[in-house]
Amino acid sequence: MWTLFEPLHAVTYFAPEAREHFEAAGLRGFWRGYFAGRAAVLGPVGPAPVVAAFFGFAPATVARALPDVWSRATPAAALEARQAGAVASLRALLADFDAEHVAEAAELLSRAAAAAEPAGRMLGAANLAVPMPAEPYARLWQSATTLREHRGDGHVAALVTAGLDGCESLAWRSGLDLSRQTLQPARGWTDDEWDAAVDRLRRRGWLTSAATATTSAIEAYRRIEGLTDEAAMRPWHALGSTDRLVELLTPLARAAARAIPDVNPIGLPRV
């Protein structure tokens, strides 16, 4: 299900229409739009809550954006720009689909999102509190966003339980499939910070001398992903059968994924 709703959400990071709306709101530059748009549901926060909630970003990178972005756009303006940009992006990417297809997918996905458990999930709860739009494209995007942040909060909890910090989680992942060249610049860690994380993981027995994953690291990956899945199940149990939603979302996700680079720091595979 994640591979089907994540592309709908992720247009806010990669589609040109999304960037245009952020810039029109006063948030020029990719990272200003990213941090203001994603953090706006928390209010005009400083860097500390965002370091905690976003998890994988270097604190210094977060601090360069926050709280400065709130002098350029209020959280309400950032939320408005984010939703408007996402809707414009989806309208362009999903232009070949009829209105009934989009509306039915949005309705089913919003039912799942409404069942997301907010307790212990900072970003999931904050997005769940955003009034659900009636307009189908906005409803589709907000539902996908709530579900991905709900899942992400559970994933962070699983990583913390495994004793990983933000940089270690990325260095470990770079030993599995995604490259250091993809992950490190996208999350703002310095070479010294990254190398120190690699050294800690080597001492733990998770990375080899070549910084590739050991058997222990691969087993841990499966365990953490399993815990993440379990923590994300409540919306799907509440929905019941997901067959119709999968049928509706699959072509939408493929279309939306055209805006997303094949190699991306989210780790999103092609649908």
Question: What is the topology?
Answer:
Elements: H1 2-14, H2 16-24, H3 30-39, H4 47-54, H5 59-65, H6 75-93, H7 99-114, H8 122-128, H9 136-161, H10 166-174, H11 180-187, H12 191-204, H13 215-231, H14 234-239, H15 243-256
Number of strands: 0
The end-to-end distance, rounded to whole angstroms, is 11 Å
Q: Round the mean pLDDT to the nearest integer and report it.
A: 97
Radius of gyration over alpha carbons?
Answer: 18 Å
Give a nutshell description of this structure.
With 271 residues, the chain is an all-alpha fold. Helices cover 68% and strands 0% of the residues.
Description of the structure:
It is a single chain. With 271 residues, the chain is mainly alpha-helical. The chain is 68% helix and 0% strand. It has 15 helices and no strands. Helix 10 (166-174) packs across helix 12 (191-204). The model has no long low-confidence stretch (mean pLDDT 97).
Question: What attributes characterize this protein structure?
Answer:
271 residues; mainly alpha; 15 helices
